[in-house]
Amino acid sequence: MTTQVSPGTGSAPEPPPGGPRWLDAEEQRAWRAWLYSSQLLNDRLDRELTRATGIPHAYYEILVQLSETPERQMRMSELADRCLSSRSRLSHAVSRLEERGWVRRQVCAEDGRGLLAVLTDEGFAALEAAAPIHVEGVRTHLFDQLTPEQVAAMRDLGETLLRHLDPS
Amino acid sequence: MTTQVSPGTGSAPEPPPGGPRWLDAEEQRAWRAWLYSSQLLNDRLDRELTRATGIPHAYYEILVQLSETPERQMRMSELADRCLSSRSRLSHAVSRLEERGWVRRQVCAEDGRGLLAVLTDEGFAALEAAAPIHVEGVRTHLFDQLTPEQVAAMRDLGETLLRHLDPS
DNA sequence: GTAGCGTAGTTGAGCGCTTGACTATTCCGC
DNA sequence: GCGGAATAGTCAAGCGCTCAACTACGCTAC
């Protein structure tokens, strides 16, 4: 959780020139609060969604991305990128969604290497059933807890980090 | 990722009385930024730590928690709680750390049911080697990107959410 | 003391993810 | 057009997590 080996460990290993830039007490608190809360929130939302609908959050995201596209279909690679997923992971996930009849693969006319993932009507129906559960969780566990100023700060923070982490 | 089924889907399913409290555009942006950034940051830190040291972040946390205790040992249940881990998950993880020689189990004198997880010298050494890598990642990908005001906002946000999610 | 219940921790099956190797197709330069 | 590099996607092995069932011990009351 923390990044300090142990309080008062004295001398420490030194990877970057000048030694590790240890966190001070304030940074530790901020880091832990962020880490714990993000972990708990994600766990909670995923568990509630999965329990209520049988759809894990990662699969839900795939369905959402497909549903937001005009033709309800997308190239596998682009879908992977949008879901912050590796190609391999997405390939496995789409296989399982295919077994449920929610998505099907279609060969891509313009590129013989490519495939399209297509959201089926059953998949869209499953998404429609799951969405209210999920949005209610986000409300309850996130937005209901925050002031408008905190929501603004959250967005600012997230977008700042995204510029560094995902400069796409 | 998002919580809306599809823009302009019109009527939607209604689980809570009054219909789902959908997110408005601002909330969507905030939610997505938070979700993506936390996911990318966690993935990145975990990957860098694992590549450089062979220790996944979840295992690192176990070692840290043990190291911060005076005797470098802790009851399994308490360790699970502190690591935001289920008993089962922790049990599996400690088994693997035991195989590496970094932790060992010890019967608990006061409670015949209980076990203590004890950090070995090898485990402490592994932690000492990994800590600088991890702290450098947190610096680079988090604190170096943020102003002091943003750090304060992050802590405030995290602690607010924790009061709701983990009122322990 | 023993029945019944709660707590501590483990185990095994099954699922999902990661990694790295693999096939197939397209793109590029000559 | 043809050879080599890049791109799209898949697959298998191995690891870690979840869930539910299980063992073992302690606690309380009768």
UniProtKB/TrEMBL annotation, chains A, B:
UniProt cross-references to SUPFAM superfamilies, sorted A to Z: Winged helix' DNA-binding domain
GO molecular function, one term: DNA-binding transcription factor activity
GO annotation terms (biological process): response to stress
Signal sequence annotation: none
SMART domains cross-referenced by the UniProt entry: HTH_MARR
Residue numbers spanned by region Disordered: 1-23
PROSITE patterns: HTH_MARR_2
Classification via InterPro entries: HTH_MarR-typ, MarR/SlyA-like, WH-like_DNA-bd_sf, WH_DNA-bd_sf
Gene3D superfamilies membership: Winged helix-like DNA-binding domain superfamily/Winged helix DNA-binding domain
Domain HTH marR-type: 27-163
The protein, known as: Transcriptional regulator, MarR family
